[in-house]
What we know:
Layout: H1 4-14, E1 20-26, H2 27-31, E2 40-46, H3 52-63, E3 82-87, E4 90-98, H4 99-111, E5 116-117, E6 126-127, H5 130-137, E7 139-142, H6 147-155, H7 160-168, H8 171-185, H9 189-210, H10 235-243, H11 250-271
Helix pairs in contact: 4-5, 4-6, 5-6, 7-9, 8-9, 8-11, 9-11, 10-11
Amino acid sequence: xxxxxxxxxxxxxxxxxxxxxxxxxxxxxxxxxxxxxxxxxxxxxxxxxxxxxxxxxxxxxxxxxxxxxxxxxxxxxxxxxxxxxxxxxxxxxxxxxxxxxxxxxxxxxxxxxxxxxxxxxxxxxxxxxxxxxxxxxxxxxxxxxxxxxxxxxxxxxxxxxxxxxxxxxxxxxxxxxxxxxxxxxxxxxxxxxxxxxxxxxxxxxxxxxxxxxxxxxxxxxxxxxxxxxxxxxxxxxxxxxxxxxxxxxxxxxxxxxxxxxxxxxxxxxxxxxx
Length: 274
């Protein structure tokens, strides 16, 4: 497993690259629930145009093999670029983050604005204010100019306006359940599965927001509802049972739709009329 000393040296080298403002540890290691086999997720925050040639050189040297760090935007509109390394037997992920875009999304979060955007690897869509969430929940490892610390202070507490907006977005979950009912009558398993999964995820987002918990992506979002103090009892279990038993008949799909409709209703009851 990668040592703290090795990580420290890596961070020092990253902050020496032109354009790099700082480095933030994210994921399970920042949360404190990492396993020995867990990846190390490093957000590499930059301003302007980072020296990707130098980043590529460093990534390749640290990995002992060729590792390409692409230009910002080459991984999609919301995940700029980065590199997949393996150092001392540990997977280390470098993820580029444009600090000006992070600041803009932090401002939107504070105003209660958010949206999901198409991005590879994010089936619900990339939550734009996750940029703020990453800073709020991460551990700042390097920040020579203090820019990251300043941004982090503004979003450490979950914004009340964002909570209200996330809860208000539950209207779409109701809409999706209605759409899934029509799909069930046609035995359209694919359509029903997409509609119901999105409805469940929107409920999970609302519940996490109400609890003041930042969310960075969809992974583990529904199971984590079980850890929330005011969530509907059995939400995570019942969501898994409903989505895991869709089947391919009108009868089985209709039963799944009814189960998710019940979860949406229970979520609304817990959160109240916002």
